[in-house]
Amino acid sequence: MNIVIVESPAKAKTINKYLGSSYEVLASFGHVRDLPAKNGSVDPDANFKMIWEIDPKAAGRLNDIAKAVKGADKLILATDPDREGEAISWHVLQVLKEKRALKDQHVERVVFNAITKQAVTDAMKHPRQIDGALVDAYMARRALDYLVGFTLSPVLWRKLPGARSAGRVQSVALRLVCDRELEIEKFVPREYWSLVATLATPRGESFEARLVGADGRKIQRLDVGSGAEAEDFKKALEAAAFTVSTVEARPARRNPYAPFTTSTLQQEASRKHGFAPATTMRIAQRLYEGVNIGGETTGLITYMRTDGVQIANEAIVQARQVIAQDYGKNYVPDAPRQYQTKAKNAQEAHEAIRPTDLTRRPRDLAHKLDPDQAKLYELIWLRTIASQMESAELERTTVDIAAKAGGRTLELRATGQVVKFDGFLALYQEGTDDASDDDDSRRLPAMSENEALKRERLAVSQHFTEPPPRFSEASLVKRMEELGIGRPSTYASILQVLKDRGYVRLDKKRLYGEDKGRVVIAFLENFFARYVEFDFTANLEEQLDRISNNEISWQQVLKDFWRDFIGAVDEIKDVRVSQVLDVLDEMLGPHIYQPREDGGDPRQCPSCGAGRLNLKAGKFGAFVGCSNYPECRYTRPLATGAEAAADRVLGQDPATGFDVAVKSGRFGPYIQLGEPTNYAEGEKPRRAGIPKGKSPGDVDLELALKLLSLPREVGRHPEDGEPIMAGIGRFGPYVQHGKTYASLEAGDEVYTVGLNRAVTLIAEKIAKGPSKRRFGADPGKPLGEHPTHGAVAVKSGRYGAYVTANGINATIPSDKTPDTITLAEAIALIDERAAKSGKGGAKAKSGAKKAGARKAAAKKPAEAADAGADAPTKPKKAAAKPKAATTAKPAKPAATKARGGTAAKSTTKAAAVSKPAAVKKAAGKTRG
Q: What pLDDT sits at residue 770?
């Protein structure tokens, strides 16, 4: 028996059918080991020794694989054909060696670019060994990402309360978004005017021509800068006679686009179908692993993580046959088209993304795929076929026109384009991020030199230049690829992390840099400038590629990086939070404090008038506050634009006559009905939050009144007469009856849901019964060990996910998920919760001891209170326990407090290195 290891069960199921009864295909379910999310998993002092930990979810599967391998003749590692796939095979092999499951079995590594019977059987005939250079490149990348994350993130937590994390590529991607926000804010619109004449030939055919010259000088797009100047040209054109000066027609060719790479597929799927990169990759993975067609699971596309643009010869032959059948032989070029990858850091020679069988036309598969799968498959099929089609033949025409009036001669120009042969354009045209008016797409009537033209209309229009557009997910991916930042296969996860952290916001398909993200980037650009430079990150990617080519040592690359990086960390270590905020306050000043209309000091507090506004940091991030705190409690978000959008009156409430306003607060914008003066003493104005996905600028009076009406009573339950309420909570719109909550599917339904629908939802929720915890306590997902409170786990509760250790529960913030939270972040949350609740003491040694303490507290409440029942005690250091293949325990976390919030705690070695340089040097030096 031969044992074959792949990543996914879907892939295993498909391949098993191809190989027959002498093979058993097992799935590893992705990576089986990773670096533990704690300090010391990569040790720079031990030549970057890495400690790998088996994923608890993978332990059982690895045991099954080990049992199967012990009785096998051969082990075949058939994971994906890229660095990650090579690493998974290496990890599986290492674990099997540690389990002593391998004796005389022969170990082979095979790769295939498509999950088809021919591709798989051919791969089995050409085995090789695991590529050590690819594994080294994987380890170097993983170690770099770990060292940056676990060294830099704790610095952020201490110096910038509310900040979540920083990453080697993540931070550079964030800088691109934030730099674009700065460009938009600094942009000053420029006025310009355009003059377009609608002219007609003697045969009555109309076309448009633009003013491009006057009195011997050229007129560019922005040259007519005032209404007076435009009016002067208008008068001259109204009195002018128009004659054709020259007609120039030039042939042109447009060649088809190359087949898809990972990056270009993400971009085009975003432009044409609105798919997020993560969505595109998930659908592509499914098409690659196989879809049930005619009772058999079949891989429909080749491997979807690739930089390559070339396709196999047999696919080219098949494409040419399909083109001839469907479009005719004149659409098939004389010679097959060959494409070459332009990216400097292109990964190993992979095929482009293409259908495994080009005779499977999209229309034949439409009813066998779900709608999104069908859309993506069609996109890939069209691009692949078009890439082998004949070029489009065009004719571009330029007509220059003279307009003479008195002693003046003005020049106009008309451009147009005629498609002589559509070629690949008959099938496919690439999408664009921004629609634009392309004069070349217009067709011009036939004209000859010296032909007189008649003016029909004259349009004189005022325009203003516009700032550069914000990045879409597609255009950001494109820009990152152009700069050589990161790998295309990681772009989807990078964008998701930025959104999950609350650093960027996706609104109407555009990425907006949030205040939290802009503060993080300002901090990094001031204190870690070198590590968010585009060239530095791209050069590091080139170094990783050289490792994969076996040109340099991966440890040497890490040494060169770590030496300077840890020095930069040491310099900032002892800089006080207030000093950091002063530096950021100065740097972000133009963004935070824009000039006032009355010419006054933009930093003057609008509430008390005496205080000065400055940047402050709190638990939920940075905000602007008054220097006269606590006498003056004025706060607002960072961006003055956000404040302007938030602080505005929408109208009056018809019922009360009170103003309905959108206001800004320290924790974000909200809606308020009336002012405190409208209410009785001690009574607060009615308020409502703005739903997720809505910005303050999106809120109008109608929406505000709806939100203020929540929660609303839908009616009384027919069985017990208790009210059923509808509202919007942390997890979206809901209906509630007693302690039973049921989610509403549509967001607007919360305002209109009726009694019958609400009763049905409540009944359905009750019918589902309690959660799975009725069968036993939820053990949760283990994260690791807390220095003083023992095992840390992630669990799901009634009010959402939380982390827990020794009975101390802390809710996971909304910008984190149970799958992404790290041990260090969990420890910070638990320590913060313990400090607030007075549970900061050492872990109790037994249940009996706890019970005894409770009894003592019941008998002597005063004594228990004096002993510290309501006050946090100093945590003891955890006793060192010898462990195999583990690192030293993290240092005891130290809480750093700043007015307005508490800094998160750090547990990493980087938090306690050698003495830093002078504060002045850390605050002002810019590193290149």
A: 59
Q: Which of 536, 631, 507 is nearest to 927 (CA)?
A: 536
pLDDT at 644 over 90: no
- For 914, the 3-state DSSP assignment is coil
Quick check: is 789 in a domain? Answer: yes
Residue 532 identity: V
> Which among 118-122, 399-403, 588-592, 632-636 has the top mean pLDDT?
399-403
Which residue range forms the structural domain that includes residue 763? 712-769
Percentages helix, strand, coil for the chain (3-state, rounded to 5) are 40, 25, 40
pLDDT of 870 > 70? The answer is: no
Give the whole-angstrom CA distance, residue 466 versus residue 220: 17
The structural domain count of the chain equals 7
pLDDT of residue 904 exceeding 50: no
Question: Within a domain: residue 898?
Answer: no
pLDDT at 772 over 50: no
Section 44-48 average pLDDT = 93
Closest C-alpha to 301, from 116, 122, 79, 120: 116
Catalytic residue among 138, 192, 303, 503: 303
CB atoms within 10 A of CB 435: 7
> In this structure, what token pair is assigned to residue 252?
């042109």
Question: Which residues have a Cβ under 8 Å from the Cβ of 830 and sit 6 or more positions away?
Answer: 786, 789, 792, 803, 804, 805, 808, 810
Q: Kindly state whether residue 801 falls inside one of the protein's structural domains.
A: yes
Q: Does the annotation count 491 as an active-site position? A: no
Q: Tens digit of pLDDT for each residue in 560-616?
A: 999 999 998 988 877 888 888 888 888 888 878 888 878 888 889 988 888 999 888
Does residue 280 share a domain with residue 374? Answer: yes
Residues 181/416, Cβ–Cβ less than 8 Å? no
Give the helix ranges, DSSP H, for 32-169: 56-70, 83-98, 117-124, 132-159
pTM, rounded to two decimals: 0.68
Same domain, 433 and 351: no
The distance in angstroms from the start CA to the end CA of the chain is: 58
Beta carbons of 900 and 618 less than 8 angstroms apart:
yes
- Is 709 in contact with 673 (CB distance < 8 Å)? no
The C-alpha angle 157, 160, 164, rounded to 5 degrees, equals 50
H or E, element range at 644:
helix 640-646
- pLDDT of 343: 57
Q: What is the mean pLDDT of residues 71-90?
A: 92
Amino acid present at 516: K
| CATH number reported for the structural domain that contains residue 104 in this entry | 3.40.50.140
Which domain-ending residue is among 334, 353, 388? 388
pLDDT in tens, 253-285: 999 999 999 999 999 999 999 998 989 999 999
Is the separation of the CB atoms in 676 and 688 below 8 Å?
A: no
**Token pair belonging to 409:** 């001669």
3-state DSSP of 847-890: HHHHHHHHHHHHHCHHHHHHHHHCCCCCCCCCCCCCCCCCCCCC
Query: Cis peptide leading into 202, omega within 30 of 0?
Result: no
The whole-angstrom separation of Cα 479 and Cα 799 is: 40
List of long-range contacts for 887-893, beta carbons under 8 Å, 24+ apart: 887/38, 887/39, 887/40, 887/41, 887/43, 887/51, 888/40, 889/785, 889/787, 890/38, 890/39, 890/40, 890/787, 890/824, 890/827, 891/39, 891/787, 892/787, 892/788, 893/787, 893/827, 893/828, 893/831
Q: Which helix (H) or strand (E) holds 478?
A: helix 473-483
* Nearest CA-CA partner of 75 in 11, 40, 25: 25
Residues 383 and 358 sit within 8 Å (Cβ to Cβ):
no
Q: Same structural domain for residues 489 and 446? A: no
Is residue 112 one of the residues assigned to a domain?
yes
Among candidate residues 819, 841, 863, the one where a domain is terminated: 841
Buried b (16+ CB within 10 A) or exposed e, 395-419: eebebbbbbeeeeebbbbbbbbbee
pLDDT tens-digit map of 689-728: 887 667 676 788 888 898 898 899 999 998 899 999 998 8
